[in-house]
Each structure stands twice: as structure tokens, then as C-alpha cells.
Amino acid sequence: MNAAGIQQIIAYGAILTATAIPLGLYMARVFAGERTFLSPVLTPIEKLLLKLCAVKSDTEQHWTQYALALLAFNLVTLLALYAILRLQAFLPWNPSGFANVPADLAFNTAVSFTTNTNWQNYGGENTLSYFSQAVGLAVHNFTSAATGFAVAVAVIRGFSRRSAKTVGNFYVDAIRSIVHVMLPLCILFTLFLVWQGVPQNFDPSVASIGLDGGAQTIPMGPVASQEAIKLLGTNGGGFFNANSAHPFENPTPLSNFAEMWSLVVLSAALVFAFGKMVLDFRQGRAIYIAMAIMCGAGAFTAYWAESQANPLYEQIGIDQAASDINPGGNMEGKELRFGTANSALFATVTTDTSCGAVNSMHDSFMPIGGMVPLVNMMLSEVIFGGVGAGLHGMVIFVIITVFVAGLMVGRTPEYLGKKMESKEIKLAVLVLMVFPLSVLGLGALSVVLPAGLAAISAAGPHGLTEAVYAYTSTTANNGSAFAGFSGNSLYQNSALSVAMLLGRFIVIIPTLAIAGSLAAKKLVPASAGTFPTHGTLFIVLLIAVILVVGGLTFFPVLALGPLVEHLSLAAGASF
């Protein structure tokens, strides 16, 4: 670790916070249906889309109707993407003449992009046409993020309303998030990326002769526009197989910093929007501080781990010392132009959210460095989390935290004037059970069944970590991977699809049920026994609950994977 790397991480946090607050206040006005400075331009587009969908903006839905609308919408988009991938050979914008995507891979990809996971068992530049990328994947990057936005807004209304039977309208919330929030930011970010050197065209790939005289193919395509929503929508699916390590997706240090900012800013801003919409900005600030503390701890831990020399490389005389021409530390799988600090920070924030974009290969990280993104996802990705998903996931932990606090003082737990009764607690526990059931259950099958074992490239603890990482990433709807894990098989395409669906929709439904239950409740005036939920004590307790739940659930498998590998490396052994 050095001063420059530490300063970059601190500067990142400061810029993120400074931009998230005003953006959150803007988003609060958008979802409250209030006028903003962009309303004259964007409201007509919103009204047109609502009219085309035959939706009235003043019609609201009970939480069950909201959930059914959400499921129907996502089912239609999933089938549409599956059809595009299976028929891409007959569709336009296919200058490379790519064949139709095989059925199991097409299903896995359709589920992946519908659930905001964007797990990729393919190389985009070698498998998908421009039509599949731009019309299939990029559009899904908007719609899947809009689903997360809508659920979060419904949960916020659950706290802000009293004696209400409805939580809003799914279609209105989704369209507003696209038109008023994501679309204008994506246009600006696309132009920025083009300025930095990211391609945006529909030209065929260019055949060229390299400096060494060898033939090479330079891929083209509408990259910048997909890159923008991939990051802002916490999607993560790269246009190219190397994702944000590819110079056409991430060409400069400035684009790298902007990409790290963009993949967190909407999730961070939504926390401040929460505080504004429940009429107590302190609540949003407290949640943000809890998220920021855990994010910072992960970033510095990963940076420390990746700054260490690999003992096995030292034994064969490879130079790992920092110098004018060497960033120092473990540079395997990393871009020299980004170094250890920016690689570690990118790995941390991309798994703090459900983005999954990468600018380095997590499989090549040191054991503790690779454990940081794994733990980030095991904590249900509530450290900022996916757009919308992070906030409603954190609310689940808030409910558990006030329940624990209520047990301490012998009172019925309350949050924002709403009593948390047995119904809300049971639903919250149901949500928390999804992660261990999916990750440990499906992951266990993958390391005992021959079809599952075929995907693991390494033996011993690292091989176990590869499998656990895959099922954690898909359940958490993240999409990053330890690249040594080969997921493109019938078994893995199917099993990973199940993990993605469980992690998305089996979490969303009980969360919406909680929102509906809370919206129907009356406000309870605060009393002397009410536990304050905006101070330091609550922040510490919230972090403790998150870490204890994740630690008790996943520590055994971490001990058998990255922790054993770390100790073996320290002893000079390898697996």
C-alpha cells in the first residue's frame, strides 16, 4: 500500500458522496411525481410511454397486484430476449454472421439479464450480434434496473404512508426510473465514454496486421451506449469478454474512475432519496454511513492483500517490488495501467453493488483479496447493492436490527413510526434464508456431482472457492466470476439460472409483502422507550447484525476455501 493508492480510495468516497446527495434529492422528487428541472423535456416522453402501455399514472396497485405486474413484465422480457438470442442468425446487424445461441446458453443469458445478474457464459464479441447486444442486452439493462428501482420505491412508500391499501403502480415507477433517471445519465455518460475512446458504431470488425506481423481482428460495435447502462444500472455484462479490462470498454485512468463512480452512484443516491421521502433525512444518512464503512473496510482490505508479494513468485525470483515501472504486489490478472489500488477498489465496489463488471481477474487475486468480493456478495449485497435491490435488502436488515434492539429493551420494535410485528419479522427472515439455501445448497451439488465438478479448474480450497463464488455471484445477482470456473455446460447453465431466479424473485415477493403490510399500518408516536435509528449506536448495531448473519452462515465455507489457501501460501505451499 502507498499514499497515492490510499488517496485515490479516499477521493473516490468523497466524490461519490458529494454527487449522491443531490442526485438522491432529485430522485425523491421524481418518484413523488413532483416537477424537476428536466420535466419539460422528459415528462412528455413518460406520458407517451404510459399511454402506449395503456397505464394511467394515477392508478395504484395493492402489493399483490404490484408483484403480479412485476412478474408478468419480467416474464415477457425474459421470453423476448430468449427469442432474440435463438433467432439472431436471422435478425439484422449481424455483420460477423454469428449463429443462433444454443438453447441452454440462451436461457441462461436471458435469465441472467432479466434478473440484473448479467452472468456471461460466453464471449460477447465472439458470440452475439450487434442486434442481440443493443436490442436484446442493452434494453434489458434498463428494464432489469427499473424493476429494482420500483421495488425500492414501493418499500419506501410502505414506511411513508399510513393506513394505505396500495404501494404505487409498478409500471409508472419503472417507466419513471428509466425516463427521468437512467436515460439522461446514460446519454451523458455515453458521450463521455466516446470522448475517452470507447467505440460506438455498427461497423464490422476490422482485419489488421499487428506490429509483429501477425493477423488480428479489431472488434467494433455499439459499445459506449451499452457500457453506460451496464454500469449505471448495476448490470455488469460486458460487450467484450474481458469486460472493463478491455481497452475498448475502459480505455483510460479517467474512464476507469468514472466507471467505478457510475456503478455505485444510483444505489448510493437512492439511500438519500429514502431519507427525503420518509421525511427524515437522518435515516438515509445513517444507512449510507453504515454502507460506506463496510465498503471502505473491504476496499482497504483488498488493497492491502493485493499489495503483498505472492510467496510462490518470490521463490522463482519474479520481481514484485514497487518501482517506477512496476506498481508492485500481486499484478497477476491486472492491467498495468490501473495497478493494484484501482484494481482492488474496482473489485470491491463492483461486488458491493450487483454490477459484476471487472477491470481485473478476481480468480488471480490473493486469497484474502479474492475473499473480499466474495464476502461482499455473501452479505446479500446490501453494501450499496444493486439499483433498488441494495436499499430494499438493507431495509430487511434494518427490520432485523430493530427487532434485536427491541429484545434488548423489552419493547415491540419500531422503525419510522411503524411497529415491526411477527408478520414483518417472519417475512424478513424468509428473505435472509434465500441466500444460504441457494449458495450452499446449489454450491454443494456442484462440488459433488460429476457434471458440476467438470466446471472447476483447480483442486483443493481454490477449486471450492471457484464453485462457491459462482453460486454466490448468481444468487446475489452480481455476475462477476472466478474465471477458472467453466459455466457453459447444460448442468451449470441450468443450475446457475435457478440460483439467479431464486436470488431475484424469491427475495422480491416477500419484500413487497412487507411493503404492503407497513403501508397499511398507522404511525405510532415516538416515546421515551423508542430506539433511535439515526445515531451512532444504531449504525454500529446494524453493521454488527449484517456481519453476524453473514459470518454465522458462511464462515465455515470461507474457512475451507480462501482462508485455508491464504495459510497455505503463507507456509510456502500451493494447491
Task: Summarize the helices and strands and which ones pair or pack.
Layout (H helix, E strand, L loop, with lengths): L2 H29 L7 H14 L10 H24 L16 H12 L9 H4 L2 H31 L9 H27 L9 E4 L5 E4 L4 H10 L20 H25 L3 H26 L4 H5 L23 H14 L14 H12 L10 H21 L4 E2 L2 E2 L2 H25 L3 H4 L6 H16 L14 H30 L16 H35 L5
Antiparallel strand pairs: 1-2, 3-4
Helix content: 55-70%
Distance between the termini: 27 Å
Q: Quickly count the helices.
A: 19
Strand arrangement in the largest pleated sheet: 1-2
Compose a concise summary of this entry.
The protein has 19 helices and four strands. It is mainly alpha-helical.
Structure description:
The protein is an all-alpha fold and 575 residues long. The chain has a domain at 43-278. The protein contains 19 helices and 4 strands. The chain has a two-stranded antiparallel ribbon with strand order 1-2. A two-stranded antiparallel ribbon has the order 3-4. A hairpin with a 5-residue loop joins β1 (206-209) and β2 (215-218). The longest helix is centred in the C-terminal third of the chain and has 35 residues, at 536-570. The chain is globular, with a radius of gyration of 23 Å.
Task: Give short descriptive properties of this protein.
63% helix; mainly alpha; 4 strands; 575 residues; single chain; 19 helices; two-stranded antiparallel sheet
